[in-house]
């Protein structure tokens, strides 16, 4: 029809699908100028092209269709500035969040690479100075099985996501020293995820700081007893008194490998 575009023509010009235009029509966002009563074909006028451009640009900027529809019912330069400034602030927040996520993901990759290199070199006990780290805890329920540890870990991640806490995508557990001495190496009392110092959750606590002995355990978690025996023997031979529970940090776990033989756990015991 003269001075009108078919739905196929308009879709081709705008590089969108006909289904998109049909959907916009159904929700009342962008309706055709004319619908043929005989066959139901949709036609659009040249005057509508700028309106469609505005919709597609706003969608690209990040507005929802609902926001676009509400705005375009009656918009002025003032109302547009308010909306665009608001979206700019939203984008800035998303950029900051993505930047934070990227830095922590990079940290996780660095940890995995260092641990993997250590695996190829040795699995010897190290004495190091550890700084304070902040952990979001959840108690592990009796009988402290692998299932109970897994549930507590899931609760940590769920709480962190719900409260939008800044986490490092790394989990771990605390194993009481008395259980380690009695040979119950896998009976953790608490699960945790690594986070920052914040008052947005009551169950965030710092780790100890200072001198510790550490060891990377490679392989199945059920075999972690061999690494604990090595740590206990090292402390006994070097006259080191263990003054903390054990802090286990999962370096490579179910988040990064489907093969449990590739799991890497860093064990830390604070000493004097």
From TrEMBL:
GO molecular function: DNA binding; DNA-binding transcription factor activity
Keyword Transcription appears in the UniProt entry: yes
Pfam families to which the protein is assigned, alphabetical: GyrI-like, MerR_1
Record has Transcription as a keyword: yes
Cleavable signal peptide: none
Domain HTH merR-type per the UniProt entry, residue ranges: 4-74
Keywords for the protein's UniProt record, in alphabetical order: DNA-binding, Repressor, Transcription, Transcription regulation
Name of this chain's protein: MerR family transcriptional regulator
Record organism: Candidatus Allofournierella merdipullorum
